[in-house]
Amino acid sequence: MKVGKIPPNLLKEYVFSNLKNHKKEIILGPGIGEDSSAIQLAEDEIFLVSTDPITGADKDMGYLAVHVSCNDIASCGGEPIGVLLTILLPEASDKEDLIRIMEDANRASKEIDVQIIGGHTEVTNSVNRPVISATAIGKVKKDKLVRTENAKVGQDLIMTKWAGLEGTAIIAKDCREELLKVFSEDFLNSAQNFANYLSVVSEGKIAADFGATSMHDATEGGVLGAVWEIAECSGVGVEVYLDKIPIKKETKDICNYYNISPYQLISSGCMIITTYDGNRLVEQLKMSGIEAHIIGKITEKDRICIQNNEVLPLRQPDVDELYKVIK
């Protein structure tokens, strides 16, 4: 494709044709010449916006972009409504690349019932691989807004699903040929399917309704990165019990192969939650089919990890383990 904005005829055929999910709150959606979208909310609702790029994956970029950005809305206790996608393609791209991105984005939007309401698509020599930036827009009742900064001393620290879900799925797909020398096709297919767990919209709603005071999705930096950010944002300490952090066998084996830590591997699909009476919230989550465990507690000041009775410092997150594998 040629450098510059995607022509209107291609937008209609390959982009707009994949925007098939519609929300009643969207009163102005994407179209040729439309530079903004409009959302109508009630007086007692708050408008939420979040944005995230996808830079660490070669495949499933459209799918990841929608889920990762909407997870940020869910972390505030909100409901995602719409997503704007900025797609930058290198000159070597062809229309199949654009079609694949949009089909994946549309699939994700249907899974969590959001609408792709606009964005920008362009071929540019400023990038040497596709880049997607997604902006999610959502709503939340004023009395249900959850802030990361509101973790309280004495609360339980809860984690949903398993550590390293997104990182495992990306590595299994992008490094498949190398990994087939060590692991079976069934093993890698199972690892790739972890992408089906990437949304935290359901647990965000359950936790917000329960009365959780802080939530954070575990993206770059993994589970430990998310826990540290909650503690830092809230000005509290934390104890994390590493032995209680659930990890899938596929994640363990792939991390062992690459000598990386599953605790610091990008973990979209995993929500970190703080609340009183954590056992009751864990029960509610499990009743809804969402795996959840108490993995620690909020303390006054020290930030530590405990494993096999050994106490280790919980440090500020460094570069995600994914980048040690995906060059």
Features:
alpha+beta; 32% helix; Phosphoribosyl-aminoimidazole Synthetase, Chain A, domain 2; 2 domains; 60s Ribosomal Protein L30, Chain: A; single chain; 7-stranded mixed beta sheet; 5-stranded mixed beta sheet; 10 helices; globular; 327 residues
What structural class results from the helix and strand content?
A: alpha+beta
CATH class of the largest domain: Alpha Beta
The number of helical elements comes to 10
Q: What is the overall silhouette?
A: globular
What percentage of residues falls in helices of 4 or more residues?
25-40%
Number of strands: 14
Quickly give the CATH architecture of the largest domain: Alpha-Beta Complex
CATH topology of the largest domain: Phosphoribosyl-aminoimidazole Synthetase, Chain A, domain 2
Characterize the biggest β-sheet.
Answer: 7 strands, mixed
Low-confidence stretches: none
Radius of gyration over C-alpha positions, nearest whole angstrom: 20 Å
CATH superfamily of the largest domain: PurM-like C-terminal domain
Number of domains: 2
- The ordered string of helix (H) and strand (E) elements is EHEEEHEHEEEHHHHEHEHEHEEE
